[in-house]
Design goal:
This is Carbohydrate ABC transporter permease. By secondary structure, the chain is mostly helical. 65% of the residues lie in helices and 0% in strands. Helix 5 crosses helix 8, helix 9 packs across helix 10 and helix 13 packs antiparallel against helix 14.
């Protein structure tokens, strides 16, 4: 009987921590990985932050400076003192309080109606069967590519013929449709589990009940994202209120800055203009800070279709 030959000894693996076990450029902490992380991550992030932050910082600092500190050949970054006279002048030269009230009315009314219309439209495009649904959705996508400035002249002729000049509804009406909000909500509604809605339908719930009791409560992050984008857009709207409004008592804050610039004849009074810009910017920054945590969640939920 033949005896089987003994198995060849298996060599032990080289220690992972020994020198020469890894090639140059490998490993989580290698020089190559650190360089790629800096060049593709931190450096672009730092440059983008500087591009966005530096003008805002300059605007805030200039709002505390006098004319001699702004219009000068010397680069003075920090003001000599925190002088709030520019803010006082900005609020007394023009009716800033009235501008603020007008902006709040137009923003809240316009944004609320826009969000509700976007919810209803997106729900219909996803959960209701009707003819030419795909054609309507393609038309909404086309509307995303058309700049709103194209419709200024037709909207002006229509609104003025209806008597909407220098009115709140004249400023709100032409922008009630939001293609972006409808598209984002539709993409999110497509990810909702159909079993929940089918169960509610079996229990006798109609479309209205399913929308407000099921779809809306589980879509709060996406709806908040649409609401935030809509609020920012309405608050910063400049061209259409400038075209449709001529009376100062009906102007919004962005248009009021133009009136402030025209009323202040001194070309060196940039500090007052910077103070007015800060007053316009602060309220929307507060709203953005309060709702910004919904942005990433809302955009992520609406980016995947089921």
């Amino acid at each position: 009987m033949s005896v089987p030959a003994p198995a060849a000894p298996v060599s032990a693996p080289a220690p992972t921590g020994s020198k020469g076990s890894r090639r140059t450029g490998e490993g989580p902490l290698s020089r190559r990985n650190i360089t790629e992380t800096l060049l593709t991550g931190y450096v672009p992030l730092a440059l983008t932050t500087l591009v966005v932050f530096l003008p805002l910082m300059w605007m805030v600092l200039s709002s505390f400076k006098g004319p001699g500190e702004i219009v000068t050949t010397d680069l003075d970054v920090l003001p000599d003192s925190l002088d709030f006279s520019n803010y006082q002048d900005a609020m007394t030269l023009v009716p800033f309080g009235r501008f603020f009230v007008n902006s709040v009315i137009v923003t809240l009314a316009g944004a609320s109606i826009k969000v509700v219309l976007a919810i209803l439209t997106a729900y219909a495009l996803v959960f209701i069967r009707f003819p030419f649904k795909r054609v309507i959705f393609v038309a909404i996508l086309v509307a995303l590519m058309v700049p709103p400035q194209v419709a200024i002249l037709p909207n002006y002729i229509l609104v003025t013929s209806l008597g909407g000049a220098d009115t709140y509804w004249g400023m709100i009406l032409p922008g009630l449709g939001t293609a972006f909000g409808t598209f984002l909500l539709r993409q999110h509604f497509l990810t909702l589990p159909g079993s929940i809605l089918e169960s509610a339908e079996i229990d006798g719930a109609g479309h209205w009940s399913r929308l407000w009791r099921i779809v809306v409560p589980i879509s709060v992050p996406t709806i908040a994202t649409v609401g935030l984008v809509t609020i920012v857009t309405e608050w910063n709207e400049y061209i259409w209120p400038l075209v449709i409004v001529s009376r100062p008592e009906m102007m919004t804050l962005p248009v009021g800055l133009t009136l402030l610039r025209n009323s202040e004849s001194d070309p060196a009074s940039w500090g007052i203009m910077m103070a007015g810009a800060v007053l316009v910017l602060v309220p929307i920054l507060v709203v953005f800070a309060a709702l910004q945590r919904y942005i990433v969640a809302g955009l992520t939920q609406g980016s995947v279709t089921g």
